[in-house]
């Protein structure tokens, strides 16, 4: 981790259900940094839910918008950014995050991820599919990208507080 991490955005990456938003909010509260959710920003910019962007325009259109929004969020110094699970897989978005921020891979067992996403199934990549199967396949495809993050945190089944503390420990 770079010595000047306090002046750069911290960007949480990892699969759906890894807790990027929940952990991000708590980390932000602890550091007293602003928190932004990239998916929520994309929905505001597009004025429609992500599921609708996927359905009407397709995934690659979504990735273009995601890249633009994250590019804008990377400016302006310290903040915590929770990204959607595919953001760090896009080569350009990943390069942007690695150059301008501190990337943290929030990782968890497929069972843990599947249990978390099943609680609220609004995710276009999972609709009508077995979450365990899809998450397993995505993990295999995406792990080589996620591994490029300088910090790797395993978020076990326990309280999110432990994950937040593990992140602070890795930073400081
Ligand atoms: C996606 C993850 C979602 C959202 C979109 C695509 C992905 O974000 O960006 O549905 O490709 O993994 P979360 O990781 O916050 O669920």
UniProtKB/TrEMBL annotation:
Keywords: Amino-acid biosynthesis, Aromatic amino acid biosynthesis, ATP-binding, Cytoplasm, Kinase, Magnesium, Metal-binding, Nucleotide-binding, Transferase. Its cofactor is Mg(2+). Pathway: Metabolic intermediate biosynthesis; chorismate biosynthesis; chorismate from D-erythrose 4-phosphate and phosphoenolpyruvate: step 5/7. InterPro entries: P-loop_NTPase, Shikimate/glucono_kinase, Shikimate_kinase/TSH1, Shikimate_kinase_CS. Its EC number is 2.7.1.71. ATP binds at residues 17-22, 123. Mg(2+) binds at residue 21. Binds 1 Mg(2+) ion per subunit. Catalyzes the specific phosphorylation of the 3-hydroxyl group of shikimic acid using ATP as a cosubstrate. Monomer. Belongs to the shikimate kinase family. This is Shikimate kinase. It comes from Sandaracinobacter neustonicus. The gene is aroK.
């Amino acid at each position: 981790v770079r010595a000047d991490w306090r002046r750069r955005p911290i960007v949480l990456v990892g699969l759906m259900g890894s807790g990027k938003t929940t952990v991000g909010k708590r980390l932000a509260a602890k550091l007293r940094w602003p928190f932004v959710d990239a998916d929520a920003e994309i929905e505001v910019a597009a004025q429609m839910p992500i599921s609708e962007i996927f359905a009407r325009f397709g995934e690659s259109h979504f990735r273009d918008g995601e890249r633009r929004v994250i590019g804008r969020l990377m400016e302006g110094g310290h903040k915590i950014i929770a990204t959607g699970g595919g953001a760090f897989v896009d080569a350009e978005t990943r390069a942007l995050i690695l150059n301008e921020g501190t990337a943290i891979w929030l990782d968890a067992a497929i069972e843990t991820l599947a249990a978390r996403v099943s609680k609220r199934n609004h995710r276009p990549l999972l609709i009508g599919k077995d979450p365990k199967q899809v998450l397993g396949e995505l993990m295999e495809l995406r792990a080589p990208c996620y591994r490029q993050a300088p910090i790797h945190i395993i978020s076990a089944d326990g309280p999110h507080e432990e994950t937040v503390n593990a992140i602070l420990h890795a930073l400081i």
